[in-house]
Fold these 4 entries.
Entry 1:
Amino acid sequence: MKLTKYNKYKNTNIHWLGDIPQHWEVKRAKDISKIFVPQRDKPQLIETNEIPWVTSDLLKNSVLNLEKVKYFIDIKEVKIKGIRTVPKKSVLATCIGEFSLTAINLIPVVINQQIQAFTSFKKMNEYFFNYLIQSEKYKNYFDRISTATTLKYLNKEKFELTLTLIPPLPEQTAIANYLDQKTAQIDKKVDLLTQKIEKYKELKKSLINQTVCRGLDKNVKLKPSGIDWIGDIPEHWEVKRLKDIGFLYSGLSGKSAKDFNQENNINNRDFITFVNIANNQYIKKDNFGNVVILENDNQNQVKKNDLFFLMSSESYADIGKSSLLLEDIENTYLNSFCKGFRVTNKLIKPIFLNYLMSASSFRDNLIVQGKGFTRINLKIEKINDFQFVIPPLKEQTAIAQYLDEKTNKIDQITTNLSQQIEALKELRKTLINEVVTGQLKIYNG
C-alpha cells in the first residue's frame, strides 16, 4: 500500500480541522458515540485477577496493556454495588494531562476518574476513532479547549462536542488496518533499539564496576578489602572513608521561591541544579539555573574539581547520585538539596572518585542509607563515613582516562540510538496525523 493525495478536498470552515476529503463528513462525538464517565466513589481494590482497575498509565496509543494492571475489582462488589464496567471495544482516553494517551479495551474494565470512554459507536470503526483522537491535530485541539488547573482537564461536555471526522466505514477500516500494520512495524523497531540501549547501559555499568574495584591489571594479586559488599581488591590498594580525604559543604540555604529564575536582576548568579547533577557524569555549564545572591549572603561557592551529591530526592533512583565539576567557574552556587565535596588530599583524583561513587556497587550501598517517605534523604554522616577503595595516584589517573574513553564511546552509541528512536516516534506521529485527518490517502499501488 502507498500514500497519495485525495482527488478533491472541501473546506470545513473550522480553523483547526482545515480542508478534508470531499466525501468525508464532520459530526460531533456525541452523535456517533456515548461518553462513559466513571463513578466518583472508588471501589475496593484487590490483587486477585478479576475485573481490571484501569488507570491512565496503562493507556499508550493502542490496545490496553493489561500486563501492567496492579489492582482489580471483586466481581461480587461490581454486582452488589452496581459498579459500571466499560464495555468491550470502547476507546479509553485520558481526560487529565496528556490527552493523546488512548487505548481500546478488549475485555470489560473499570476506569478511574482520569479516564473517559467512548462507547456504543454508530457507523464508526473504534480503531479508526482511536487513531483519530491520538493524532497531533486532535491532541493540540484538546490542549486548547481544556480547563487549566494544576493539570489540564477535559469534562464530558467538551468531549461530546468534539468535532469528529467521518470517512465512509470501509475507508475507516482500511485506514485503521494500515496504521495497525505500520505502527506495529515502527513500535517493533523502537523496542529493539530500546533493548540495545539497555544492553549498552548495562555494559557501561559493568565496565565501571569492574574497573574501579579491580583496576586495569587483570593479573594483579588480590586481598580482602574487609568490606562485604566490595570483596577482594588489589593488594596495594587502600580502604578510606570520605571524611579522611576532604570535606562536605552545604548548598544554598535561606532562599525562597521568589529568589530563583528572576529576569534581569543584577544580583542573579548561576547555581548548579538538581537535574544537572542527576543526569550528568560531569556538570554541564550550559544547564545552570539562576538565583539572587545579595552582597551579605553567606553562601558556599563551588570550585573546579568539586564533587556534588544529591542528598534529597523523591526516588531512590537519584539519591546519592554524584557529578563532578571539571571547569573553573566564578560566582556559582549549589542546589539546596545537594552537598558539595572538596578533596583536600593531594593523593586523590576527584575524577577517579566520581567514577567510584557512580559505580552501582557503591550506589546500591549508599541508597540503602536513604530514609523517608515523600522524600528520600541522606544524612551527612552517612556520606562522611562511607568507605571506598583507592589505588595509587598514577593508577587513579589511568583508570579515569580509560573509563572516559570507553564510556564516551558507549554514550555516543546510546545517543545515536536515542536519536533513531525519536525519529521513529516522530514518523509514527506524522503518519497517524496525515492519514486519519485525510491529508493522505491509502491506495494499492
Entry 2:
Amino acid sequence: MTYKVGILGATGAVGQEIIRLLHERQFPFSELKLLASSRSAGKVQSYGDQSWTIEETKEDSFKELDICIFSAGGSQSEMYAPVAQKHGCIVIDNSSAFRMDPNVPLVIPEINPKAALGHKGIIANPNCSTAITLMGLYPLHKMFGLKTVIASTYQAVSGSGAEALQELKDQLNAWSNGQTIEKNVYPHQIAFNVIPHVDRFDSEGHTREELKLLNESRKILQLDDLAVACTCVRVPVFRAHSISVTASFENEIDMVSARKAIQDFPNVELVDDPDNLKYPMPINYSEVVPCAVGRMRKTNVIKNGLSLWITGDQLWKGAALNAIQIAELLHEEGAIR
C-alpha cells in the first residue's frame, strides 16, 4: 500500500531532512506534496532526479493526503493540524503545540510505540533533547527503574534552523579573515562560545527547553513523579546534540547489566572505551540513525547513581527520523486510513 504524503515546512532544515529520509528509507509514498508559506510558494525543490513545486499552505491542502509531517512551528501546527485532522489526514507534528495535550500521543517508536496506535489524528514528536536523552535512559529505566535525572545539554546550532547554521559559518569565516563578527539568530556570538540559553526563560529562571525534558519525559515514560533538573546550552557545533546525564534508579546499578541493556536496545550504540579514546561525539553521530551512549560510570553522589554521555543527530532522531519512524510504525500496523 502506498500513501499520499505531505510535508508542512518543507523548505526548513528539518523539512529538507524529511524529504531525504523518506527516499532513503523507501517509505511507500505515491505522491509527495511540499507545503510552506506564501513567500516560498512556486519555488522548486529537488531530490535526486525528482522535483516538486512548493505550494502555499491552505485549508484545502490536506484534502487528498493520507499523512502530513508538520515542521513549521507551533503557530502553524495549531492553525492547520485540526484542519488536516478533519480531512482524515494524520498529522505527525514536530512542534511543541500538542506534546502535552492529553489527547495526543507523544511518541518515540523504540520506547512507546503502542501510544501511536491510539491516536485521534495527531501524533506529537518530542523535543530533540528529550528524544536523544531518553534513547539513552530508557534501556536503563527498564532494567533499574528511573527516579531522577540531572542533565546538561550541549545543543548544536542546527537545532535553531538553517539560519543558525549559516550564522555559525559566517562567524567562523569572519573571525578567520579578521572581520567583524555579526550576530542575528542568537543574543551572543556563538562561534568559540557557549550560551546557557535555549528558548525563553520563565519567572523562576528555567527555560522552556529545560522544562520540556521534565514534562515530556514524564509523559513518554508514564512516570508522573520523575524528577528532572536540566540546564540547556547552545554550543558551536553544526549538528548533533549531546547530553551529560547523572541519573538515580530504584535498584542498585550493575555495570555489566547496564552496558548490556544499552547494547541490546534498538538504534542505540554503546561507545564506551575511554582507555582507547572512544566515546560518543557529534562529529561521528551526524547523519547517523543510532544514538550513542558512553562515559558510563557509577557515582556515589546519589544512591544508585549512574553518569553517562548521550549523543544523537537532533535533525534526525530529534525530529525528521523520529517522525518518519512513526509513519513507518503506522504503516506496519495498518493504522493509516
Entry 3:
Amino acid sequence: MSDLYIRTGMTEDEIEYIKNQLFHFNVSAAPPDQGALSKDINLILKDEDKIYGGLIGRIYRRCLFIEFLWISEEARGVGYGGKLIIEAEKIAITEQCSFVHLDTFSFQAPEFYKKKGYEIFGVLEGYSDGIKRYYLKKDL
C-alpha cells in the first residue's frame, strides 16, 4: 500500500472497474426491494426522417430518474415534452415507482417541470455565471 499514487485520466477499463466496484458495494449495503436492479426508460420523438426529441431515464429503487429530456427547437411549445413526461410517468407507475426525480439548470426548463407538477427540493448555486441547478421531484 505504500506505493499508491494518484494520476489524472483513466482507461475505459479502469472507469468500468470503478463503477462496478461502487455498484457491488451499493447492492451489498442496501439490497433493492424489487426484482431488477434498474430498468432503462428511453422514449423517442421522431418521424420517418428525423429525431425531434427524446427522454432518457432509469428506474431504480422504485423511482424514476429522468436524466435527459430534449425537444428540438421546431417541435417545442406544442406539448411534446409534456407527452414524453406523461408516457415516462405511466411506465413508472406500471413499474410501481413512488416518485420521479430530475435536475435542470435555470437556463433550461425549471418552469416547465413545475407546470407538470414537479416540486423543487434543492437548488445548487455558486456557478460563476449565476446559473442555478434545480433538483425536482414528483410523487406518483
Entry 4:
Amino acid sequence: MGFRTAIMGATGAVGQELLRLLDERNFPLDSLTLLASKRSAGKKIIFKGEELTVQELTHDSFKDIDLVLSSAGGSISAEFAPSAVKAGAVVVDNTSHYRMDPEVPLVVPEINADEIKNHKGIIANPNCTTILMLLALAPLHKKWKAKRVVCSTYQAASGAGAIAMQELADETRALLDNKDYQRSVIPHQYAFNVFAHNSPMTENGYCEEEMKMVNETVKIMNDKNLKVTATCVRVPILRAHSEALNIEFEDEFDIQEAYELLRNAEGVEVLENRAENRWPMPIDATGTDPVYVGRLRRDLTQPKTLELWLVGDQILKGAALNAVQIAEKL
C-alpha cells in the first residue's frame, strides 16, 4: 500500500531534498503531487524517471491526499495546512508556525517518536538548530540529566533557503572580482563576513532563532527545568550548520562514557582525530544524514560541565530528512 503524498513548497531547497529522499528511501508512494506558488506552477520535475508538473497551491489541492510534507513558509502553512487536514490528510510541517502549539506534536523521531500518535492532523518539524543539538544532547541528558545548555551556532546560508545560498555564491564571486553586488535575501554582506542571526529581535534581546532553540528544546525533551541559552550567528558557509555546546549536568559524568553514548546514539557519528587536530566540519556533513560530534572535553571553569562540537546538514537532518522520518513512523 502506498500513500497519496503532496509536497507543499516542492521547488524550494528543502522541497528538492524531500523529493530526493522519498526516492532514495523508497517511501511507499501511491501518487505524488508537487505544489508551489503560482509563479512556479507549470515547472517540470523528474521523479523516478517520470515527469511531474508543479501545480499551483490552492485550498482545493488536497483532495484524495493522505500525507502533506510542508516546507513553504510559516504563513503558507498557517493558511493551507488546515485545508489539508479538513480534506483528510496528515501534515508534517517544516515551518515554525505550529511548533509551540500545545495541540501539535513537535517531533525528532530518534527522541520522542511516541508523540506522533497524539497528532490531530498536524505534526511539527523542529527548527534545524534544535534538531541538530538535541540528537547529541538527548542521550547525554538521559544518562546524567542536563541542567543548563549554552549553545553557540554557526549557521550556513542553507537555513535561509536556496536563494540565500545562491546570493552567497554570487556575492563572493562579485567581491573577488571587485564588483558591486545587490543582495535581496540576506540584509548584510554575507561573503567574508559573520553577523548575528537575521531573524527578528524579540523584547528580551534574543532573536527569534535563539528563542526557538530555548522553547522547542523544553517541549521536545519534556523537561521544564532544562535551561537553554543560545547565540545564533550566520557564517559564510553554503550548507551545514555547526554548534558549540556547553552542557552542565546534575550528575557527574565520564568523558569516555559520553563518547560511547554518542557512538551508540541513533543519527549521531563521532568524527575526530585528536592527533591531527581534526574535528567535524561543514564539508563533512554536507549531503549526509548524521550529526557529527567531536571535541568532547571538560569545562575547566565549572564542575559537571561538558563541552562538545557538532555539525549537521541543515537541509537534511535539520529539515527534510527529519520530516521524511516522521512520515515513515506514521
